[in-house]
From TrEMBL:
2Fe-2S ferredoxin-type domain span: 241-335
Cofactor: FAD
Domain FAD-binding FR-type: 4-112
Repeat recorded as keyword: no
Biological source species: Kineococcus endophyticus
GO molecular function: oxidoreductase activity
Oxidoreductase is among the record's keywords: yes
InterPro entries: 2Fe-2S_ferredoxin-like_sf, 2Fe-2S_ferredoxin-type, 2Fe2S_fd_BS, Beta-grasp_dom_sf, FAD-bd_FR_type, FNR_nucleotide-bd, MRET, Riboflavin_synthase-like_b-brl
Broad enzyme group: oxidoreductase
EC number(s) stated in the UniProt entry for this protein: 1.-.-.-
Protein name (database record): PDR/VanB family oxidoreductase
Length: 335
């Protein structure tokens, strides 16, 4: 069975591991068991609310936080986000004995073995994409620092476990204890003391922005920085807005639980896309007009491109009402 093939995995364990964060352990069927390397995720089928239509199926990706060596147990850890489009609520509703339709472990955040030194930076539930890497690199004898940032300890899953296992390699940065992560100071130190460091980052968009900018500012090589995104986190709360694509005669509403891409597709637009996480750039469309503020939620467009406002990744980015209070509107062109 191909890793991308969906199968029915049985939920064998669920537990709350931090405030609003649940661990779900899955047991794939015998023919579909594969080892989950660090950086792998599962694509899972979830049902999300769809207005008057009830629910609709969608696919979400969640990192494998740990697994048994034979792949018979794979653990996901999911934050119940208030701005979620419904996928995390579906996973939080699972109980032992339920079935979740999912793929095998898929890799899009591989850890390169053999670097001089590793810096892993996790924000909140972003630890799920880095915990296995920290354990594996430590086992291999690599020099690894895991900087784990969060608002408070009760929102930082696995922190105590990781500290017990990895000792001083884990450096917690806990805002409400006065040890908030200072990204600029961290990367200034890295550039000074260990410029050969390879960094892996996973967390909310604000953390990725801070790290990518500071990484550049301190002259660290761009090829040594890798990151994993949470596609749904933005700077504004998700709200409904109108979107128009005059070239295809489309006008529709993007509700808070849908993306621009999904809404245009439902209206009959045949658009290119791949990652659905704001990373590949395949879904980028030119912007003709915006009423409101574009909430760029991608990591594909550069800071300048986002500020210029000429294009948008329609798989993740949204529009929020601007200070003038007009109904938010996005008018797009075809590339
Ligand atoms: S589909 Fe990859 S950035 Fe939108």
């Amino acid at each position: 069975m191909n890793a991308r093939t969906f199968h029915d995995a049985r939920v064998v364990e669920t537990a709350d591991v931090a405030t609003g964060i649940r661990r779900v352990v899955l047991e794939p069927p015998a023919g579909a068991r594969r080892r989950a390397d660090p950086g792998t995720h599962l694509d899972v089928r979830v049902e999300v609310p769809d207005g008057d239509r009830g629910v609709r199926p969608e696919v979400r990706s969640y990192s494998v936080v740990d697994s048994s060596p034979d792949g018979s147990r794979l653990a996901l850890t999911v934050h119940l986000s208030p701005t979620s489009r419904g996928g995390s609520a579906h996973v939080h509703g699972l109980r032992p004995g339920d079935v979740l339709r999912c793929t095998g472990p898929l890799q899009n955040f591989p850890v390169r073995i053999g670097a001089e030194r590793y810096l892993l930076i996790a924000g909140g539930v972003g630890i799920t994409a880095l915990a296995a890497a920290a354990r594996t690199l430590t086992r291999l004898g690599a020099h690894v620092d895991l900087v784990y940032a969060g608002r408070s300890r009760d929102r930082m899953p696995y922190l105590a476990d990781l500290q017990a296992e990895l000792g001083e390699r884990v450096q917690p940065a806990v805002s409400d204890e006065g040890t908030r992560l200072d990204v600029d100071a961290l990367l200034a130190r890295t550039a000074r003391q260990a410029p050969g460091t390879e960094a892996y980052v996973c967390g909310p968009l604000a953390l990725l922005d801070a790290v990518t900018h500071a990484w550049r500012r301190h002259g660290l090589p761009s090829t040594a920085l890798r990151y994993e995104t949470f596609g749904s986190s933005g700077r504004h709360a998700a709200q409904a807005f109108r979107v128009q694509l005059p070239a295809l005669g489309i006008e529709t509403v993007v509700d808070p639980g849908s993306t621009v891409l999904e809404s245009l597709q439902r209206s009959g637009a045949d658009l290119m896309y791949d990652c659905l996480k704001g990373e590949c750039g395949l879904c980028v469309l030119p912007v003709r007009r915006v009423d409101g503020v574009v909430d760029h939620r991608d990591v594909y467009l550069s800071e300048d491109q986002q500020a210029d406002g000429g294009s948008v990744c329609v798989c993740v980015s949204r529009v929020a009402a601007g200070p003038e209070g007009r109904e938010p509107l996005l008018v797009l062109d075809l590339p």
